[in-house]
Amino acid sequence: MQIPVKKNQKIVLTVEDLTYEGMGVAKVNNYPLFIAGALPGEKINAVVVKTRKNFGYARALEYINKSADRVDDSLDQQNGITPLGHLKYEAQLNFKRNQIKQLLNKAHLEALNVNNTLGMENPLHYRNKAQVPVRKINGKLEVGFYRKGSHHFMPLKHFLIQDKRIDEVLQSVLEILNQYQLSAYDEETGKGLIRHLMVRRGYYSHEVMVVIITNGKSFPHGDKIAKEIMKKCPDVKSVIQNVNNRKTNVILGKQDIVLAGNDTIMDELNGLKFKISAHSFYQVNPQQTEKLYQQAIHKAGLTGEETVIDAYCGIGTISLNLAKHAKKVYGVEIVPEAIQDAKQNAKINNLTNVTFEVGNAEEWMEKWSEKGIKPDVIMVDPPRKGLTNSLIHSACEMKPKKIVYVSCNPATLVRDIQLFMEEGYQVTQPIQPVDQFPQTPHVESVTVLENKN
Ligand code: SAH
């Protein structure tokens, strides 16, 4: 195909669609140009910034007309923190439902229904966790972000979608670190000490954990700094140094050193208490997580008599919710620290009908099967890459009445639904999207599959 535009060319574009990443799409002789921040229906003066063989990127210079779905005082959508912040919240919820719908249509599953997305009343300041890079700007350590696809660091104090108290704690930690002439990590040279700060805050408990990620084990004045943080912020119950000396964009390293306080903080979900450590996966939007889990549990249709498997169980948040309504729950998770937390969480909540195992979900499905365990319901909540063929096969071999699929990626969900259908399972209720990540294009949903035979 002939590329119909050139780099730096100025051009008038009409935006037709939004990609799953929330970028506007306009076409020139069928050649797609992606434009950050532009919305369907908008006509713009743009400049072509990059061309590849099958698609290119353009930047909006001026809006000739604006979409009715555009937020007037738009959050800076290009800052990488709120890539959908320029779209009205109602329209964001529709966008998320439509994404699932479109993927189903492409797979010839247009007969499947998708409910309206369950949204938040106040879709800002919802995140219970921050994970931000630290760099030195004019001699001072700052937290901020990198613009999408760039190496240009932008310092920031108000992160818009994080718990406001987390923003405050980040600034307090920086003030203290700045008294000690510490260096910041440099991605290019791999030198410098402070790489990232991670802060987590319990939505109900208000307990805060601060994790300082350092390039190497030596952290001059680390203990003193930790004590000062706890003194300045009495809600901080845990200060941890995490050592990461690899040249990688993975944020956390393997080694944790507790500098002050505990190695975990507590939080609650749907009235159950949870212990959370630095490495554990814990859903970032607590208000919506309660709704998501209620959906998943309701859809499982438990009466108290069922055996349930929770594959991908993390620290046991869904498992323990299920355990209150089932006879027996088996959970499996690949991160050993998470299972340690899960076991303690079962004890804290006096739930004795749950067994947790460390390992690969696939392998444990087979082991449980060999032990003669017959689940009535299997709950899966996999990472973005979805399920493997062999997991789907072993799950179906166990012949559960229901499979409840919590998905954070509609593309792999639709792919996996097709595989379940090949094994004789059908989607029996409308798919329910739940907005876990307002102002971003991420789509979370709950699907129920049943074997009618
Ligand atoms: N249900 C939990 C966790 C969901 S996130 C919650 O809502 O909090 C997905 C989890 O799957 C992560 O904790 C991740 O560590 C785990 N995981 C990833 N691959 C896995 C595998 N092959 N087997 C078991 N667990 C896995």
Your description of this structure?
By secondary structure, this protein is of the alpha+beta class. The protein has helices at 89-106, 164-177, 222-232, 286-300, 317-323, 336-348, 361-370, 389-397, 410-422; strands at 10-14, 17-18, 24-28, 31-35, 43-51, 56-65, 129-137, 140-146, 153-155, 194-201, 208-214, 236-243, 255-261, 264-269, 272-277, 307-311, 328-333, 354-358, 377-380, 402-407, 426-427, 432-434, 444-450. The chain has 3 domains: 1-68, Nucleic acid-binding proteins (OB fold (Dihydrolipoamide Acetyltransferase, E2P), Beta Barrel); 129-269, OB fold (Dihydrolipoamide Acetyltransferase, E2P), CATH 2.40.50.1070; 285-451, Rossmann fold. 24% of the residues lie in helices and 30% in strands. Strands 16, 17, 18, 19, 20, 21, 22 and 23 form an 8-stranded mixed beta sheet that branches. The longest helix is centred in the N-terminal third of the chain and has 18 residues, at 89-106. The radius of gyration is 24 Å and the shape is globular. The chain starts with 9 loop residues before the first strand and ends with a strand. It binds S-adenosyl-L-homocysteine (SAH).
